[in-house]
Design a protein that fits this description.
By secondary structure, the protein is mainly beta. The protein has no helices and 17 strands. Strand 7 and strand 8 form a beta hairpin.
Length: about 200
């Protein structure tokens, strides 16, 4: 009798990779955890994974959709995903990242629109921030007492006189961390000079 030899292809090794956030990155207290699982069929009641926050098991997950983690405390945390068998036996297939939760960026300007009379002069702008900030100004008729700082501040904007009867507007950019916004600046036009009638029309 002949002997038949059947070659069995080795099964592909399961993998799990956390793709976002990046390892050792800074995040807000709530964020999406994005990951890729390969060669591990996820099904309800079947194979799945568990995720951990600082070694605390958050339970089984039967979906490959991104996880929304919310209200983490400030500081450093280790996030881990570990593949599991249907009976919840944890496997050797795991990936983890370390993140630092930092306060959400606060950066606002009050008022958002600064209005000057035609004769110009100073106006006060309040910056409310918990980060370093900087102002980018390209308006030749406008100057600032400060164009950078840290945290809350009151700064003075000074506009030159507008001798044109047409009002002028522009935007300056306020930047801080990963945020930026526009501050609108408006200056009224000069009041038209009254017309003087010719001598022949005077009474």
């Amino acid at each position: 009798d002949s002997i038949r030899v059947t070659q069995v292809e080795p099964s592909a090794t399961p993998t799990v990779t956390i793709t976002s956030p990046a390892n050792n990155s800074q995040v807000d207290s709530s964020f999406f955890l994005i990951f890729v699982i390969q060669n591990w069929q996820i099904s309800q009641g079947g194979r799945h994974f568990h995720y951990f926050i600082d070694d605390q098991d958050q339970g089984p997950v039967y979906s490959v959709n991104p996880l929304f983690l919310q209200d983490l405390e400030l500081g450093t945390h280790v996030i881990k995903i570990q593949l599991a068998e249907p009976d919840h036996t944890l496997t050797e297939y795991v990936d983890s990242i370390t993140v630092e939760v930092v306060p959400a960026t606060i950066l606002t300007a009050n008022p958002e629109t600064v209005i000057f009379l035609s004769e110009g002069g100073p106006q006060t702008l309040e910056i409310v921030a918990n980060v370093d900030w900087a102002i980018e100004n390209t308006l030749s008729w406008l100057s600032f007492s400060d164009t950078s700082g840290t945290g809350n501040a009151n700064i003075t904007l000074t506009a030159l006189e507008n001798t044109d009867e047409v009002s002028r507007t522009g935007n300056v950019i306020l930047r801080g961390n990963d945020r930026s916004g526009f501050i609108e600046v408006v200056q009224e036009g000069a009041t038209p000079s009254p017309c003087t009638p010719p001598d022949s029309m005077r009474v």
